[in-house]
From TrEMBL:
Domain annotation Cytochrome c: ranges: 128-208, 215-296
Cellular component GO terms, alphabetical: plasma membrane
Listed transmembrane segments: 6-26, 60-79
Residues binding heme c 1: 141, 144-145, 273
Keyword Zinc-finger: no
Binding site for heme c 2: 184, 228, 231-232
Record's keyword annotation contains Protease: no
Name the record gives this protein: Cbb3-type cytochrome c oxidase subunit
Compartments it resides in: Cell inner membrane
Amino acid sequence: MTTGWSLFVIFLVALNIAGCAWLLWWTSKRRGDEARNNAETTGHVWDGDLTEYNKPLPRWWIILFWLTIVFSIGYLAWYPGMGNFAGTSGWTSAKEHDADKSEADARLADAFGRFDAMPIDDIARHDDALAFGARLFQNHCAQCHGSDARGAKGFPNLTDGDWLWGGSPDQILASIVQGRQAAMPPLAAAIGGDVGVTEVATYVQSLAGIKADPALAEAGKAKFAGVCAACHGVDGKGNAILGAPNLTDDTWLYGGDFATISEGIRNGRNGMMPAHGPIIGDTRSRLVGAYVWSISHRDADEPPDAP
């Protein structure tokens, strides 16, 4: 706050306190028999003899108001409230926040500390750790992957065995801590425009075992080998290092219909998972990773619990 604004705030506070004090003095100066005998009226009369008077406030009420003013002056001297004046106590909301955060961090460290640096597949053997991980997942991951972790269009299903970046404990942890950036560039111009997109999309469907036009698929095969194989491999089985998906199974992140595949080839895709290491720290990332690893290693017919 600039000096000018600080002085303006101090002036307003002082003016309000002085105004309240003057108002109390003015309303309490007429007392005793004279005040009672010569009290002013408001001019309101009911039923002929019921008159509304304008009398001073009761003394006990005025004393309470004076005590309030004294308290406000003491409060403003002790706590910051007068512009840039910091108060004699040295209290700040930032210090209060830091103290509360330190206390909360100490409690969390006591609860999570035993899992520090532990591999996530080992953490997954502890029921209490999985409970912690499930709640952290709901707070930080369910917005994209769903409360049941089955994902949605553009957001991977975490309960199956299909992984873009690898499903080992270390790979899952790396995805959580560091985040992932998956980018597929628009390829229409590189493979011959709309005709090339149609041919390659048909070939991709044939790789997944979807019935497709043999002639178009054969034409798309050469274009796929020249452009798409750099990421997805010549056999279309993908590359976990690049996050390039396996195109030969029936798992699709955006959809396996012809229109969706064509759209991805023509316009590209840009999927991003933010790094959660800076947000929740290493140990809590491990707890989330343990939960994700555990639900992906259940029986395929057993749905994960949504806490």
